[in-house]
Write a structure and sequence with these properties.
- By secondary structure, the chain is mainly beta.
- The protein is globular.
- The chain is built from 2 helices and 14 strands; from the N terminus they run ββαββββββαββββββ.
Length: about 180
């Protein structure tokens, strides 16, 4: 049975960002269903690209980073999201009965994830004066949130606020040669 959830917003001139809660393991299906049922919505789970090495063979795999959550962007004209239990069961997260639109750090995180099409891929980095500096990719815009760098495994630990909780995320980077400009 389909249920229409009314989306009303105070800020009608800006894109709206929200979050859906779904069953763990159903994030991709929930995002596809939300986008399919309302074509104005761009919905995505949060994926991270991981590098795995086994017997000197390197493979890359996208994995769900935040299980059970899907972020979405809707244009200002969007008035509803359809939840259809026959495809994927999900609910619209709200701050209270009427306020569903993400605010502050939650909105910033959703905007960042949507701008990356939901995938935190590898970032290009270079060594400058003994320090690892992010020069291009998803970690460049959040470099201030990096709290630790593992140079051996080429990972950076981010500490971010996601849905009101401090979350630590290990994300990979690729070291490139400095041009020495």
């Amino acid at each position: 049975m389909a249920e229409a959830i009314c989306l009303t917003s105070q800020r009608d001139s800006l894109d709206k960002f929200g979050c859906l809660k779904c069953h763990e393991g159903k994030e991709i299906l929930a995002a596809q269903t939300a986008s399919h049922l309302n074509r104005q919505i761009k919905a995505t789970p949060v994926l991270i690209t991981k590098r795995f090495t086994q017997k000197r063979v390197v493979r890359f795999e996208n994995r769900i980073l935040i299980p059970g959550y899907v972020f979405f962007k809707a244009p200002p004209s969007t008035s509803y999201v359809v939840c259809d239990d026959t495809y994927a069961s999900y609910t619209l997260l709200r701050y209270d009965r009427s306020n569903w639109e993400l605010l502050g750090a939650d909105r910033s995180f959703a905007e960042w994830i949507i701008s990356l099409d939901g995938i935190i891929g590898f970032t290009k980095a270079e060594k400058r004066e003994g320090r690892i500096c992010m020069i291009d990719g998803p970690l460049k815009s959040v470099e201030n949130d990096i709290v630790k760098v593992d140079k051996k495994n080429r990972n950076a630990l981010l500490q971010m606020n996601v849905l009101g909780r401090e979350v630590k995320i290990w994300a990979g980077y690729e070291l490139v040669e400095s041009l020495g400009w």
